[in-house]
Amino acid sequence: MxxxxxxxxxxxxxxxxxxxxxxxxxxxxxxxxxxxxxLEIIAVGNQAKNMIGRTPKSITTIRPLKxxxxxxxxxxxxxxxxxxxxxxxxxLFSRPRxxxxxxxxxxxxxxxxxxxxxxxxxxxxxxxxEESIAAALGAGLPADLPIxxxxxxxxxxxxxxxxxxxxxxxxxxxxxxxxxxxxxxxIMSIKENHNLIIGEGTAENIKIAIGSMTPYEDxxxxxxxxxxxxxPKDTMVKSDEIRIALQKPILEIINSIREVLSQTPPELSxxxxxxxxxxxxxxxxxxxxxxxIANETKIPVKLVDEPLDCxxxxxxxxxxxxxxxx
Length: 326
Fold this sequence. Notes:
The protein is an alpha+beta fold. Helix content is 38%, strand content 28%.
């Protein structure tokens, strides 16, 4: 009677916590700041993100997930524990039961790492579900019916592309090209075209402000460090430059969508052609992405409602299927 059922969208860039009967209670960056000498955790989530690029040598910021999987087991466990304890209560008599999303392409070793990290963080019972299933549920698609549903979830570390029918994945691709790769493409473009070094935070701000896959005129002034002199410098960046920089990673995602479509059974392909492709995740919010995918595939594309929360909402719905009602 004292248990809590919790869904976790454990993402490379952000972690969202869904508590049964309460909804999403936390949206925090998946970042931890630690003291390099004592290994003491200094900050987690938003507080740690604000420290990026501004810490002394004694403190470093770590993202314990890379490309959608755990790269630092101990730090990931501490981060999960922090998010659970700071956003839920009443665990004096029992441990929480968790549903956690994972990319479809993870190995068995990577699956066990997620389970072990969650259990070490205090979970009593852990169930893993694939992100594509959670995204389909969160988008409100009829994933349990014999109907072809195509969902493309573009997160921070991975892009999950899947066709879902009768409550399971028919065919899928997990592509380690997503929001982080978009930021890296922008960083390289700024360095090559302006001889300016910028950080990931600045690249993300550029992407949000003027990133677009359809031509339009806009510009932004950014600050960074001159690659030659090492001195602070600002420069003007135009939207066309960013669009060109983003084309390579975006085309990788589109090519994977084509591959999945080419291997989809004909009956389900007909459903997808009629119903369209649904896109979710933070990367799906890039301006003009819907139109570009639609033009390349000749299939309608729809951005889901609340794309950032879609997977977390799906874990919340999955709680009702995974755990019996109390």
